[in-house]
Amino acid sequence: MHELAITQSVVDAVCEKAAGRTVHSVRVQVGALTAVVADSMQFCFELVTEGTVAHGARLDIDHSPGSAQCRECGTTFSLTDLVLLCPCGSADVEVTSGRELRILSMEVS
């Protein structure tokens, strides 16, 4: 369950930036190709915020779809998993989105 370590890192960064202020919400972007399960991340968020300035905060997760472009035929196509094959059959593709995992914003007071 790598979501626990990822979520702990998010909470650590948020608490550091909050500098003692209360965190009300955190918004993260999670790409479809990161293999992060959103429900697991939500569960872990509640656990790791316990006793921090982010305790009781809401976690909002924005999902970004996976996409790639074929270097052979130039086609841009959607990716739903890590099978990196163009519809033309080529495996010479460049992933253009879906690997994002970042904190977008946080609300503090």
From TrEMBL:
Matches recorded under InterPro entries: Hydgase_Ni_incorp_HypA/HybF_CS, HypA/HybF
Residue sites binding Zn(2+) per the record: C70, C73, C86, C88
This protein's record includes keyword Zinc: yes
Keywords linked to the UniProt accession: Metal-binding, Nickel, Zinc
Keyword flag Metal-binding: yes
Positions bound to Ni(2+): H2
The organism's place on the tree of life at top rank: Bacteria
GO BP terms in the entry: protein maturation
One MF term in the entry's GO annotations: zinc ion binding
Pfam families named among the record's database cross-references: HypA
PANTHER family cross-referenced by the UniProt entry: HYDROGENASE MATURATION FACTOR HYPA (PTHR34535:SF3)
Family membership noted in the UniProt record: Belongs to the HypA/HybF family.
Role description: Involved in the maturation of [NiFe] hydrogenases. Required for nickel insertion into the metal center of the hydrogenase.
Protein name: Hydrogenase maturation factor HypA
UniProt source species: Rhodococcus oxybenzonivorans
Upper taxonomic lineage: Bacteria, Bacillati, Actinomycetota, Actinomycetes, Mycobacteriales
